[in-house]
Specification:
heterodimer, A: 604 residues, alpha+beta, eight-stranded antiparallel β-sheet, seven-stranded mixed β-sheet, 20% strand, globular, B: 182 residues, two-stranded antiparallel sheet, 8 helices, 2 strands, 45% helix, 2% strand
Chain lengths: 604, 182
């Protein structure tokens, strides 16, 4: 007879870790199943991933983590990375984003951006006639944003962030002071601050604004920054957790590598929350355990069947069933949908897997008139946020503009390609060195994250004949970008050109020199990429008829089941989703603790 | 062992290498160490190619890694390259070696692309095949990463203020400083 846990959680990313930690703090016994490996759980193991990153030819977000055929993950479709392709791409567009299947989840290679959603994002359909509304508003989520900002350890100043309707409780400020803006940000601000642009017939004034980040900076008040985790023998006894390793990574050191791996773990990852969970002694972690079927009886989940393998090098595995009172699927948008569909648990409204979203990201890159210090500092420290909201959203998509400190790595693979191009031109010796001295430090990149309303045709399905090493179906991705989004992207491209012109930056955006996607739209070639921002495969809503989960991420179909994570988000607006995902996990935790077996009274 | 033709590149569309491709040369560290005289020639050629002086190149600590791999992987071309460079050194006064490098090596249909691949290796710590006709199963026939050397790519040193991502961090807040020449 298997152990009966209070809570069985599938997925050890940020959602699963927060729910595990909160439930365990409340005295519940928790089992966490993780499909991938737990290589990063020890300090030594995490550092080994850094070496894997050095070894990788293409330094993509997945590069530090070796391909695991037993828990495969997607890669960037236009880059020839090693390992089998995981997504079956059904078109019409390729889906350009990735996630991680490993202990710690995709926070192992997230950027760390922690913007709250705008109040108007929650009423998206009502206000602008596109997409869907949320069943809750900004005011409902604001207290959980505070909890999420403390859990992640966000560095920002409230005075920078209160705009476009975003408000903060009196006396509140973020746990740490803002990350200093880069020299490049300050140079751009000198030209951009106060410039006006036209959008949807309105004049808008632009401002370079500091970006809230889940990276350790200078703490405020009693907040103590949390650094690297270690559950091995390297820096202390096996139970030392982060007690010793936390002295590493208490502040960002400027490794210029938030994605794909922060070498000192000054950037938050879910291993930090998981450590707190395990320290309660009420949480059991099982890595290399792939959930293969959710078992149900009537309106109740009765177990999760999983396949346990010993090593990524062999498909040898055994099958078992985990049992609990309450179940939480927290294995990211695509995997949550895949697992439900594999278990024949499509909802009657057909919305499991539907409404897959991303932030299609327009890329623009140029050469600044003087050295700006490219390839130095956190990958981004500032953005232009003024075009995230406004009446124009009834006409086309809104966007935020992320200002990169990482030169042209993302669009072109620079500085390698800069060197190769110069050598290809025939430059050698001092002339070559002088060229690279001149241009590399002047490279600047803007990434315009375009909002994408939910579209039921954009969806995850499965094909049971197309399977991975353990015999589980690969996700089939149907994905398109519509005119509303492309019109927003075209507006972003125009504004990026205006910003470059104002700042004296030579526009070097060139569809022939990029790994990114190219799309023709109204006679213009747009260069864009996925942002790594999945949402919408099990949207929340106020009614069972039109959604998959309620506002606490509880399934409408099964009383003791939660589907947690970005899949619950009916829309993202222009916010990077992780902070909102973390806030929702706190909501879910309260509901789960108060109402373990059935829906409580208040879900609004 | 692959035989790389010395004098001329083959016609477009025709590879001079045997069909099917012989097995890669076995890597045997005990016998693979490059001859001592190659080390000095390799560095002096690399100085002329890269624009960095020998102290900078030696300081990277990865020159011998490159030379060892090149010696084993291109056992017939590397000696040709170094021999051509020795002729340039003996035939040209120091101030004219750049011209000699261009005429004897960079403009050569086989040695030129090979030398440029060596230059890319120094700058990026990755190998890209020098010739369109090199088979993909040749041990030097595909793009390769020299993992441990990654932080030592000269492109990071050439640039102003830059450093390799995930290595040699510059410290909290230093990204706000004015870079040299700004």
């Amino acid at each position: 007879m298997a152990d009966l846990y209070d809570v069985v959680i599938v997925g050890a990313g940020i959602s699963g870790s927060i729910v595990a930690q909160q439930a365990a703090e409340a005295g519940l016994r928790v089992l966490v199943l993780e499909a991938g490996t737990d290589l990063a759980w020890t300090y030594r193991g995490y550092q080994a991933q850094l070496q894997t990153f050095y070894d990788a030819l293409y330094k993509t977000p997945e590069a530090p983590w070796a391909f695991n055929p037993n828990a495969p993950e997607p890669d960037i479709p236009t880059v020839p990375t090693p390992g089998a392709k995981y997504f079956v791409e059904n078109g019409p567009q390729l889906y350009g984003s990735t996630y991680a299947r490993a202990l710690g989840g995709t926070t192992l290679h997230w950027m760390g951006t922690c913007l709250r959603m705008l109040p108007e994002d929650f009423d998206f359909h009502t206000r602008f006639g596109h997409g869907r509304d949320w069943p809750i508003g900004y005011a409902d989520l604001a207290p959980d944003y505070e909890l999420a900002e403390r859990e992640i350890g966000v560095s920002a100043n409230v005075q920078d962030q209160a705009h476009l309707g975003v408000t903060f409780r009196d006396g509140y400020d973020y746990p740490m002071q803002r990350i200093p803006p880069s020299y490049s940000d300050k140079q751009l601000a000198a030209s951009v601050d106060g410039m006006t642009v036209k959008l949807g017939g309105e004049s808008r004034e632009l401002l370079v604004r500091n970006t809230p980040a889940g990276r350790n900076s200078t703490p405020r008040g009693d907040y103590s920054p949390i650094g690297a985790v270690d559950h091995g023998e390297d820096l202390g006894p096996p139970t030392a957790g982060q007690a010793l390793a936390r002295d590493i990574g208490e502040r960002c050191q400027g490794n210029t590598s938030c994605v794909p791996i922060c070498p000192v773990q000054a950037k938050y990852n879910a291993l930090k929350t998981l450590t707190k969970a395990v320290d309660t002694k009420r949480v059991t972690l099982m890595a290399r355990s792939v959930a293969s079927r959710v078992l149900v009886g009537g309106r109740r989940v009765t177990g999760v069947e999983y396949l346990r393998y010993e090593s990524p090098d062999s498909d040898k595995h055994s099958k078992a069933v985990a049992r609990g009172r309450t179940y939480v699927l927290a294995c990211h948008a695509v995997e949550n949908a895949k697992l439900m569909l594999m278990s024949d648990l499509q909802s009657p409204n057909g919305l499991v897997g539907a409404n897959l979203q991303d932030h299609p990201t327009l890329l623009a890159w140029g050469l600044a008139p003087k050295q700006v210090g490219a390839y130095r500092g956190p990958l981004s420290t500032s953005g232009i946020e003024d075009l995230r909201g406004g009446a124009f959203r009834s006409q086309h998509a809104a966007f935020r503009i992320e200002i990169g400190n990482d030169g042209w790595i993302w669009p072109t693979g620079a500085p390698d390609t800069t060197a190769i191009e110069a050598i290809g031109e025939g430059l050698v010796g001092h002339a070559l060195r002088e060229r690279l001295r001149d241009v590399i430090g002047r490279q600047i990149r803007l990434g315009c994250l375009i909002e994408q309303p939910p579209d039921p045709e954009n969806r995850v399905t499965i094909n049971r004949r197309d399977v991975d090493a353990l015999g589980l179906p690969r996700p089939v991705i149907s994905y398109g970008v519509d005119r509303y989004v492309f019109d927003g992207m075209a507006a972003a491209a125009s504004i990026a050109r205006q910003i470059f012109a104002k700042a004296g930056i030579q526009d070097r955006t060139d569809p022939k020199k990029t790994f990114a996607f190219k799309s023709e739209h109204d006679g213009v070639t747009l260069v864009w990429a996925g942002a790594g921002h999945f949402a919408g495969t099990h949207c929340m809503g106020a009614e069972a008829a039109t959604s998959v989960v309620d506002a606490n991420q509880r399934s409408w179909q099964h009383d003791n089941l939660f589907l947690a994570g970005p899949g619950s988000m009916p829309s993202m607006g222009t916010s990077n989703p992780t902070l909102t995902v973390a806030a929702l996990a706190f909501r879910t935790s309260r509901d789960l603790i108060d109402n373990p077996e059935e829906r409580g009274g208040d879900v609004g | 062992m692959y035989k790389i033709p010395r004098l001329a590149a083959p016609e477009e569309g025709r590879s001079p290498l045997p069909a099917g491709g012989p097995a890669p040369a076995a890597a045997s560290p005990a016998t693979a160490a490059p001859p001592e005289e190659h080390v000095g020639d390799f560095y002096s050629l690399s100085v002329e190619l890269t624009g960095f002086d020998e102290v900078d190149l030696r300081e990277t600590g990865v020159g011998e890694l490159y030379l060892d791999w090149l010696s084993r992987t291109f056992a017939d071309v590397l000696p040709e390259l170094l021999a051509a460079w020795r002729e340039v050194q003996s035939g040209c006064p120091p101030g004219e070696r750049g011209r000699g490098l261009r005429e004897s090596i960079l403009d050569h249909p086989v040695l030129g692309p090979f030398a440029r691949s060596v230059l890319v290796l120094w700058y990026t710590a990755t190998w890209s095949p020098p010739w369109w006709w090199i088979p993909a199963d040749h041990p030097g026939g595909g793009n390769l990463s020299f993992g441990a050397a990654y932080p030592e790519g000269l492109m990071w040193r050439a640039a102003v203020g830059a450093h390799p991502g995930a290595a040699k961090p510059t410290g909290f807040g230093t990204w706000a400083f004015r870079p040299e020449g700004a």
